[in-house]
Amino acid sequence: SGGALYLGGSATMLMNEITATSNTAKNHGGFVYSLEATLTMYNSTLSENTAGFGGVAYLYTSATSSFYNTVFKQNASTDSTGNGGALFIYTSGTETIIHSCTFDKNTSKNYGGAMNISGVSDVKVYNTTATGNSAKYGGFTYETKAGTVVLFSGVTVSGNTATNGPIIYGN
User: Fold this and answer.
1) pLDDT in tens, 4-14
2) Per-residue H/E/C for 24-88
3) Which of 60, 62, 74, 133 gives the lowest tally of CB atoms within 10 Å of its CB?
């Protein structure tokens, strides 16, 4: 897990102006797997990363994450039951912030073309654009689990596709 980075325990990682292309993990997080860590990313481009779950990142347990002015492009969740073409967020009692980001042409074979949000998460998405993302459920976002709070503000979506819920599929 974590094609390029594995962050665990009380690790804190701040990244600025990162270009991550073509990283692969068989299971979780093509670029990064974050387990109970803090990840903050600014002004970055993450493209063509792949994993079974979370093409770019798999954020797990009490991981706290923030993404600002970051482009997620053509990433994929490749497992037949995989989720989250760009981000797989499975956290409990923590916050994920996505601000001024772009999700473009990310794919998942199952849930959440751009994002899969599970667990009891608090996810805030501001001033973000989602275009051309695709999945079986939730072309842009798949959200599941009672207690999950997702806020979308100033989000522009177009051309996202799914068999069920081309923009958001909640279960």
Assistant:
1) 999 998 899 99
2) EEEEECCCEEEECCEEEEECCEEECCEEEECCCEEEEECCEEEEECCEEECCEECCCCCECCCEE
3) 62
With beta carbons less than 8 A apart as the criterion, state whether 124 and 96 touch. yes
Please state the length of the chain: 171
Q: How confident is the model over 64-95, as pLDDT tens digits?
A: 899 999 999 999 999 988 899 999 999 888 89
CA pair distance 54, 115, nearest whole angstrom = 8
The answer to whether the beta carbons of residues 120 and 93 sit under 8 Å apart is: yes
Pairing mode, if any, of strands 50-53 and 76-77? Answer: parallel
How many other CB atoms are found less than 10 A from the CB of residue 34? 29
* Radius of gyration, CA atoms only, the chain: 14
Choose among 64, 65, 70: nearest CA to 44: 70
Lookup result for tokens 């990142």: 57
Q: Residue 148 half-sphere exposure, CB side, CA atoms within 13 Å?
A: 19
